[in-house]
Amino acid sequence: MESLIVNNLWKRFNATVAVKGISFSAERGEILGLLGPNGAGKTTTIHMLLGLTSHDEGSISILGLDMPKDRYAILQRVNFASAYVSLPGNLTIDESLYVYAKLYNIENPTRRAREVLADLEVDLPGKSLIGTLSAGQKTRLNICKALLNKPEVLFLDEPTASLDPDIAIKVRELLKKLRQNYGTTIIYTSHYMQEVEELCDRAIFLARGTIVATGTPTEIRERSKLKSLEEVFVTIARDGELRDSDEKEVR
Ligand SMILES: Nc1ncnc2c1ncn2[C@@H]1O[C@H](COP(=O)(O)OP(=O)(O)OP(=O)(O)O)[C@@H](O)[C@H]1O
Ligand SMILES: [Mg+2]
Description:
The protein is α/β, with parallel strands linked by helices. It has a domain at 2-87 and 152-239: P-loop containing nucleotide triphosphate hydrolases (Rossmann fold, 3-Layer(aba) Sandwich). It contains 9 helices and 10 strands. The strands form 2 sheets. It has a 6-stranded mixed β-sheet with strand order 6-7-8-3-9-10, with helices on both faces. The protein has a 4-stranded antiparallel β-sheet with strand order 2-1-4-5. It is globular and about 55 Å long. 41% of the residues are buried. Magnesium ion binds at residues 42-43, 157.
């Protein structure tokens, strides 16, 4: 069953066309990587899926509902975390989780906050101010925050950016656990190709707003005849496309 269906999505910012008619879907419980060089349109796409920015053309269906028509209903059932969105620095961890749980009208916010932390086995100092946390702690808190409403679809924009390898492994384990325990669909962006190979069921490579390759990480690598997904990435970043040895576009 599909959690997400995107059809012919376009986004223009004045002279810049950030997203040029992309179509893709994600099945329930799938971990889908949205990849590509800086400026490819990944964040813009995620923002359109969340209704944070409007799309110029095309349609977005999430959990069978229409974005933006059913935005409110969708946002109650999905969530978002990004390495680049800060939580309020003058609140403690406990306070911030309480406030966010309240925003979702969760009945017992304190209990739900504790549940999320325990469930993910995330060891965070509840009484510490967010402003004093390390990048790794903030990232994990961000993900905890994103789980308060038990999202069926989770959007993550570079969740492992700026993490040390040890914490990055923990975050990856956490995402796998979510999918396994709750069947959460995860749409995420990352610049770490090794991570993508380990985590993603399927990947979509974007370049200059168009989809240039899709498939499992292994399929994409094999079709490209390149040695690694890292090389695939660099080729796409430099050439803006990916061709196989028969000069056909790899799709
Ligand atoms: N609010 C905006 N106003 C104008 N242009 C924008 C805006 N947001 C994004 N863009 C442009 O749209 C294009 C896609 O940007 P986007 O942030 O989606 O890329 P990205 O794939 O997330 O890149 P990165 O890997 O650097 O995060 C870029 O050319 C960017 O400059
Ligand atoms: Mg981005």
